[in-house]
Fold:
Amino acid sequence: MRVQLTRPQGGLLRGRCGLRAFVLGVAIAVSATSTAHAGLALNDSHQAVALGGQSSTGSDQRHRVTLLTGDVVTYTESTGGQTTVSIEAAARSGSRPVFETRSSPDGYFVVPSDAAPYLASGVVDPELFDVKELVKEGLGDAASDKLPVIVSYDRDVPADAVTRQADDLLASDRTVTLPSVNAAAVRVKRAEANAFWRALAGEVKGDRAGARVLGGGVTKLRLDRKVKASLDKSVPQIGAPEAWKAGLDGQGVTVAVLDTGIDAQHPDLAGRIADSRNFTADPDARDGFGHGTHVASIIAGSGAASGGKYRGVAPGVRLLNGKVLDSSGSGELSELMAGMEWAVRAGARVINMSLGGGPSAGDDMVSELADKLTAETGALFVAAAGNSGGIAAVETPAAASSALAVGAVDKSDRLAAFSARGPRLGTWLVRPRCLPRNIPTGDPAH
Structure:
């Protein structure tokens, strides 16, 4: 999944969860993707078959998408709202596949019968077969010749073994190893996707009838999906001036900003960045988009560029610049996760992420990584609840049990219309969970 930014929406982030929370009341909201279901069709190998909808016209949007199995789907969205797909099956050594299609306003799944048991067993992410989502992610054949996938291994596999095994996978290139979650990101070559799939799926069977496990020590395949990221009155509104009077300006605290990079020459940030690391394909860690510099200045800007008027929340902090989003404002989940690992190993006590990956029950890979790194190091991950405005729509990584999920209010301290609301999806845990300024510290009810 790739990460994409949206401009800050003017929402004011408020709360008092100790110094770390006031330093990071700057998390900016996120939006993300959704999944859907519904319909059925058959297809002979090497034969294109149209399914559903009406014939397309010149004004229709047609997309060619190669699935992880090597099957090619031509997905057409008509101007009237109807959808048509045609499928060209990749070569198989065994029986010809049957293709099931399921649709809703949010997704269109095309699943070959020989892949369906792996989805049912939970070892393959269904989004790898959601052609509507793949197109939305910019992963149609015309836009990308590779499919980004996160490959997971058993928890007892050491990091060097994960790297070696991922490097040995056919028809793919490893981009990064994620040792804390025993995973690696790879990019599968679309022209050779069927070879990648056959090497992992093959005829390997699970313990139960009809169940499937993957070969090569791989426990799960996930789409490396995109996520989206989302103040001058915000600093006083969250109580920063009162904290400054009490001598709290973040001195001695290291804060990592995982974003589009930081402009180290900005007057408010000059000399404030202790270390930088680039996790994208860009040549360096500079900010070619502007969002990361904006976020960093809200956290720690000195106010030099405005004669002290626009001072950051915690101007005494030491900054780490983790560039996980490129100069177009996008990146992949694996790049974000690699940045999270680097930040805590580099000594960050607080990690700010103005981005996220959609509503979650806190059991996704990013939330799992946040919880694990927090347990290991005591670092605090701060993220926005989200931009959707929905109920039970708190997004990852804000959905992580150990993360500080920050909701948004307007200039009158009312909940902003765009702020995602809790509780957490599925588990009903209270989220967002940042204390208002009038709640005593340590109140067990909060």
